[in-house]
Amino acid sequence: MIKPILIATLFAASNSFAPRSTFRPISPASTHAIHSPTASCATRQAEELGIPCQDECALQSYPNLPDTIHPGVLSGQAAMDLLADAKAKGYAIPAVNCVTSSSINSCLESARKNDAPIMIQFSSGGSQFYAGKGLDNSNYHAAIAGAVSGAFHVRTMAEQYGVPVILHTDHCSKKLLPWVDGLLSASERYFQQSGEPLFTSHMLDFSEEPIEENIDICKDYLKRMDKMGMILEMELGITGGEEDGVDNTGVSKEDLYSKPEEIYQVYEALSPISDKFTVAAAFGNVHGVYSGDIELRPPILDAAQKFISKKIGSADPLPVYFVFHGGSGSSLEDIREAIGYGVIKMNIDTDVQWSYWKGIKDFEEEYRPYLQAQIGNPDGADKPNKKYYDPRECIRSAESTTVSRLDQAFADLKCQNILGLPPVGKPENTLGPRRGGLLV
Q1: Are 257 and 297 within 8 A, CB to CB?
Q2: 138: closest CA among 79, 99, 80, 179?
Q3: Could you say which DSSP state residue 230 is in?
Q4: 16 close to 139: Cβ distance less than 8 angstroms
Q5: Is 329 helix (H, G, I), strand (E, B) or coil?
Q6: For the segment 37-88, what is each residue's pLDDT rounded down to a tens digit?
Q7: pTM above 0.70?
Q8: Of 4, 38, 225, 298, which is least surrounded by CB within 10 A?
Q9: Hey, what domains does the chain have and what are their CATH numbers?
Q10: Are 165 and 158 a contacting pair, CB within 8 Å?
Q11: Per-residue pLDDT tens over the stretch 155-178
Q12: Rounded CA gap, 18 and 85, in Å?
């Protein structure tokens, strides 16, 4: 079954490769097909692929979470139940931008190690890299194909690691809408075949547009996404710094802080459509790690929650699901305070990029004399060096340091021992170069 699903999904996404305007209204007809009564219930990826599904992979649910939450990629009510659990219990889920299968596997390894859920997300640039820099990206062809390919990898391996995953895409500005349009088309076709969208959620970032336009476009997309049970993440205000080619280092400081009235404006507009949305409100967030004048103000989130709760007459003191952008380099005090005000997700990209590079750098420093030629090292002029320059060696070193950095993120976000599974055992039969095992 998976082969026709994959082919159909890629074919649907390919419809977005043709030139189009930056923004187009979404026609109700574009989502009509997903209501087909013949749409089947979602099945495990392992079953579709005919690969083993044992131990945690075979679980139907987790001891410490609602019964809807299962190993693998979540969508619809299961995804919302996970966010509600995070808000109620006071933890946030790390969200990591991935660019290769190696970075995805590092996320899954750390999530299982910490007995926790994780969010795996792709940016447009990361999606293009996943497809390969040799592939043309006209009309975001490569970025669409790369994200779809990455989604199938996440779906396959998340089950095997036995952890729940929210599969997400990161910042999408107006000029990048053809990219998300292609991914939504892929999700709609996947929904027809399997009963769930390919992705859990998408992030739309129109924070540079007037707030009315920002909200109006988000409303259109939420209507389309809600038909598949997808979650929309929207941004208010501007996250400073630079990430994935978007440079906001020179923006006005005033734009780095959202107002409670603006957040309520979003809540009031989107709530009648669906409850499946989160808000990336600005409270001084900055992408990257800088030594300059950066001031996070988490109380902005607290003020917004109180303002909205009073406006809607809700007994819930935290009516909004907030997300924390630019988490790298933030103090533990600010992180924990933000979680207390309803933050259920924190993006961490820059620190993870550094941790991956550090693993490669450390490996090269340790084994430098063995990495200068194919033959000849301190052990002898005729000694081969293949097991040192095998790319699996430095890549595994990078994965190990990345897992360690993510372990810290899980601890900082109080996102440990969430699932209720026993400690993970040491992997067996992990042979490496020439069947002798990896050095690292």
Answers
A1: yes
A2: 179
A3: P
A4: yes
A5: coil
A6: 223 335 689 988 999 998 999 999 999 999 999 999 999 999 999 999 999 9
A7: yes
A8: 38
A9: 2-14+41-350 (3.20.20.70)
A10: yes
A11: 999 999 999 999 999 999 999 999
A12: 41
